[in-house]
Amino acid sequence: MIEKTTGKPMKRRYVDESRIGDHICYYSDLRKIRADYPAWDITKKLDDIFNEIAESWLARLETSASL
Length: 67
Description:
The chain is mostly helical. The protein has a domain at 39-67. The chain is built from three helices and no strands.
């Protein structure tokens, strides 16, 4: 998604070990949180989140380039 958002290829490398601080597992089933917090809902689309992240990094890069 970030490649689609930025139009630039990702530089990546697979390492078969956990990083310090990474979660061991993730849960995608939202039924429990919705049962505990019925007024809660997802308010942002994933595309919007990626766009915000890309815009933030571009702003940081522009700022650091002008220093």
